[in-house]
Amino acid sequence: xxxxxxxxxxxxxxxxxxxxxxxxPPAATRTTIATVAPAAVDESSGLAASRRTPDLLWxxxxxxxxxxxxAIGLDGKLCxxxxxxxxxxxxxxxxxxxxxxxxxxxxxxxIGENITRKTGAAVYVVAExxxxxxxxxxxxxxxxxxxxxxxxxxxxxxxxxxxxxxREQRIYLLRKREDEKPLYSLPLRPVPAGASTxxxxxxxxxxxxxxxxxxxRAVPIATGRWRGNPTSMDIAADGLKAVVLTYGxxxxxxxxxxxxxxxxLARKPVILPPHGLAQAExxxxxxxGRSIFVxxxxxxxxxxxxxxxxxxx
Length: 313
Known about the structure:
Elements: H1 3-18, E1 28-35, E2 44-49, E3 56-61, E4 68-73, E5 78-84, E6 92-100, E7 103-110, E8 121-127, E9 139-142, E10 146-150, E11 159-165, E12 170-175, E13 181-187, E14 201-206, H2 214-217, E15 230-235, E16 241-246, E17 250-254, H3 261-264, E18 270-271, E19 280-285, E20 291-296, E21 302-308
Parallel strand pairs: 5-9
Antiparallel strand pairs: 1-21, 2-3, 3-4, 4-5, 6-7, 7-8, 8-10, 11-12, 12-13, 13-14, 15-16, 16-17, 17-18, 19-20, 20-21
């Protein structure tokens, strides 16, 4: 080995030892871009990026809130409120946006196992209103376009994470409380009249979600004992990335072309910079999949944006 090359190799080894991990840039940068201003949004439990209006996000409150979706700008200000007619918010836990058949849709998951629940869980789909239909001064009322009942073969389960893969036309659900989180799937399309309602299909486990250590388990708060519980998820529009939010982490999963989500989510994720929120419950991708937004269940919650780098999976 020539002297100059030997020096470069030794230097690189020394740098790697002193600054481990510096040979690769972080997978994302985290920024607080706004405070969610509307007083009506006090338990942001789901988040979705508009497919009709640039720089617009949708959110909703958790259980027993109004059956209303709130449109907010990236400045945190209210742009409009959409009431879904004919349903109640028993335990709304997550929402998604997607495009199907040339139209933009919003789906909200009434999927949590609220102790007061008397009816079954379901995912409700509504057509996304245009910007011209929205006003911060009044509500827009929309009907349910279709609903997907959520039933499990082994009884009711607590679930707060909902995602849609449009290419597969499937809904994905990730259960909350077990250390190795079970992943389920349902058809996105409505069941034809007269057909039996399918049960959620168990696909496998998502085993590499970081769990609390012994010290954290001793602290009965979201970022302590329950920091490993998934509270929201989303699938990027290109179908090649998924994000899972827990009380402790933002986790990015990559999927190879032709690979199933069961296989992709069984691998170890990339752990993004800590969100630092006390009760993080809502996450979504931007429409182009280059950014991730996060909020928490709190009045005037921070709106976080993670901008993914070229080193992201």
